[in-house]
Amino acid sequence: MLIRSGKVQFLFWTAFAAVVLYLWIVAIGLQTFVLPDEKPMHLPQDVVLLMFVLYGLLAVALLAGTIISAMIDSAFYRKFFGAFMILALATVIVAKSLFG
Fold first, then answer.
1. How far apart are CA 51 and CA 33, in angstroms?
2. pTM above 0.85, yes or no
3. Could you give the CA distance from residue 93 to residue 88 in angstroms, rounded to a whole number?
4. Residue 97: its pLDDT value, please?
5. pLDDT tens-digit map of 28-43
6. List of long-range contacts for 16-22, beta carbons under 8 Å, 24+ apart
7. Which pLDDT value is given to residue 100?
8. DSSP helix/strand/coil, 67
9. Residue 73: left if φ>0, alpha if ψ -120 to 50, beta else—which one?
């Protein structure tokens, strides 16, 4: 059995949570705005609020992972969280450009 330090376990679970949050955001966005059965007459406020909350949690998870990985000098997680942060921000920019 391989036992890792608490910091590396924190980075792993933070990375796992970030991926789950991102997939949840993408799934909600696709179901609500891209692939609905009929176009919504008005913007669904509850879905928009949920996406803001999820993006906030994703930002906190990514920043925490980036800071901890830089503090313990973990190159793999530093690259992972950096690339994932770029992907999350690019998703926001693409969504903004598509939906105004």
1. 12
2. yes
3. 9
4. 85
5. 988 888 888 787 788 8
6. 17/61, 18/58, 18/61, 18/62, 18/65, 18/81, 18/84, 19/84, 21/54, 21/57, 21/58, 21/61, 22/58, 22/84, 22/87, 22/88, 22/91
7. 61
8. helix
9. left
